[in-house]
Specification:
Radius of gyration: 18 Å
Helix content: 25-40%
Distance between the termini: 48 Å
Number of domains: 2
Largest sheet: 8 strands, mixed
Structural class: alpha+beta
Strand content: 25-35%
Amino acid sequence: MSPPDERELLDIAVEAARRAGAVLTDYFRRPASGIDTKSTATDLVSDADRDSEELIRTLVANRRPDDGFVGEEGGRAASGSGIRWVVDPLDGTVNFLFGRAEWSVSIAAEDHDGAIVGVVHDPNGDETFTAVRGQGAWLDGRPIRVSACDDLTRALVGTGFAYDAEVRRVQAEVVARVLPRVRDIRRAGSAALDLVALACGRLDGFYEATMETWDRSAGVLIAIEAGAVVTDMEQVLGHSPGVIGANPQLHPALSALVEPSSG
């Protein structure tokens, strides 16, 4: 099997993310519809999520019909090409439904070694973050790099929280340990936006557990290609592992601080 054309994959991902962003922006301007719950009563989904995923899935299927697909809202297709698309069609649904602007579209194309290309599109900020494995990361075509902060006490750290109440209890214990030791903590509500904020130096570090593959695939690649060290964070109560990311100088201290077993 011939290796994939990275430029083709990136172009498809960028086009899909921007087209989905336009659909979401239209939904954002009018009353929400089709709201339902998923894992818990606070974990929401709407017609905007579903229509964004369907647009992306259809575009990918038309361009690369043999590729696999996994989307947060249930879209699934097996891969016959060795390539799988991993999609969060609306990362930050709760923000979106509450009229807050911190939400994004996250798309990655993966092979058996992980993400090849990653795209995170922020329609409200009109910013598109991209990366190709081994070739760097960009914001609207300009190279980006993680911050040089090497002192945890001066680090601005991003995090996020689960919808499961027992997982939140564990996460609260970690936050209580972290907050006195860092400059401050930010919680945007979109893990993809947090990861690209890490990539371009708007955050010095980021951690979150738990995270599903669609939460992390594109953003982790972008952060790594911008110079971050990104490792798995321990599973919490049997849920999916999370991530810990920072530059190489800061990562060991942040990792030691946030792992649940370190408390």
